[in-house]
Amino acid sequence: MNARALLVIAALVALVGGGYMAAGRFEGTPPSVVAPEQLVVGKAGATLSIEIEDPASGLRELSIRLLHEAGSQPLSDHSWPGGLIEGGLPGGRTASIEIEIDPVAQRLPDGKATLVISVRDWSWRDGFSGNRTELSVPVVIDTRPPRVSVQSGLTYVYRGGSAAAVYRVDSDVPVHGIRVGNTFFPGHPHPADADAHIALFAIPVDAASDPLVEVVAADEAGNEDSVRFPARVIERQFAKSQIDIDETFIARVAAPLARTAGLPVVGPSETFRGVNEELRARNERMIRERVQDGAARPLWSGAFTQLAGSKVMSRFAEHRTYNLGGRKISQARHFGFDLASTTAARITAANAGVVIFAEDLGIYGNCVIVDHGLGLATLYGHLSQIEVETGQSVAQGDVLGRSGISGLAAGDHLHFATLVGGTYVDPLEWWDPKWVRTHVGVRLDPSPR
Ligand SMILES: [Zn+2]
């Protein structure tokens, strides 16, 4: 091949290559923009997060504006370095943008607005001004908090005890209820008063002393209002007990539970600790999760019943220390009542409701949970047999199963617990017809309160 031919080939390569490149610089794929479908901005403001990408030519310009009834406001302008020949720099192909929207500082009027996001790339399209993507995001700016007002009078609540609160909210809000310290108890529409809401709440056993009890409401924009609820907390002491366990019990009862749960079965004390602490925590998380989505109206009526003919073996919130060979190896708070009757006794629903759990649950063995509505639930553990199914409605006194020794139990008994909004409460109050009438019944009743 002579030099001239080589030159022709070189020129051809340059032309084809150049054409190839030019074709590439003429690419027609606009930048991709991932943004929220809508945005609700409250008084505290909101953060807008967007992801933009342009793999072919690279990002060139971004502009974000907010159009509202009072005008248009630029929120962000950004350009990326690059040139018409080479396009964007390699580092300018993707970007994550976060923009703070602060209606107070930016003097944005309440109402509907539109966020316009416009992005251009370094392509030669559109007379070298690039491919453009424009996205409109509907925005609602709402800086007015909802207003709550308390309807219930002074309420006495024991630590570990329950109460009901009636309140009003001046607008439709997605979140409202009672907050006790850090624990939130969601409220529900009042069944007999369309303008009011009702929430069952409790003073958790481990709440701070004299905890703040408030009615809270938060709208979609995150604006919150809270007012103090007139609750007086009555302190009480809970029993403490020492429980001596032996290696036989650990090998026979705890080790199989540890194995099933995938926990290490090593020395006796570690095995027991794993079951009593780690497995217990897991089981409690599951219970709290399940009782979350109960009925928004009361399914129960009147007082709850204690298992017929049963003897109380252990009371609510007893603090248990477990000893092995005279040495403390673990501890736990016992949040239920242990009720002993006969072997394989018929276990009945303490009140009407819907079965929301009916299967094995670690330390509680065969376990049934009944939802009674408004966040109230009862739990029945250590059963030898379950005779109901999840989703089934039960009346007070309906048989749920038979007592037994499944789970972490030393002898045939029923572990019975009551929960309000996922917090364990003393069942004694709910077993007392007078308490149920004077503390909950009157607040559910439409007659003057
Ligand atoms: Zn128990």
Provide an overview of this structure.
By secondary structure, the chain is α+β, with helices and mostly antiparallel strands. It folds into three domains: 29-141, Sandwich (Immunoglobulin-like); 148-234, Immunoglobulins (Immunoglobulin-like, Sandwich), CATH 2.60.40; 240-444, Glucose Permease (Domain IIA) (Distorted Sandwich), CATH 2.70.70.10. It has helices spanning 3-25, 125-128, 247-261, 268-291, 427-431, 433-444, and strands at residues 32-34, 39-41, 46-53, 59-68, 71-79, 82-83, 87-88, 94-101, 111-121, 132-141, 148-150, 155-158, 162-169, 175-180, 183-186, 188-189, 197-202, 213-218, 224-228, 231-234, 240-245, 311-314, 318-324, 327-334, 337-340, 346-348, 353-360, 366-373, 376-383, 385-386, 393-394, 399-402, 414-420, 423-425. Strands 22, 25, 27, 28, 29, 31, 33 and 34 form an eight-stranded antiparallel beta sheet that branches. The relative contact order is 0.11. The model has no long low-confidence stretch (mean pLDDT 92).
Brief synopsis:
The chain is α+β, with helices and mostly antiparallel strands.
According to CATH, the homologous superfamily of the largest domain is: Glucose Permease (Domain IIA)
What is the overall number of helices? 6
**Any idea what the shape is?**
extended
- First-to-last CA distance: 107 Å
Q: Which residue ranges are poorly predicted, with pLDDT under 50 across at least 5 consecutive positions?
A: none
* Biggest sheet details: 8 strands, antiparallel
Oligomer: single chain
Range of helix content: 10-25%
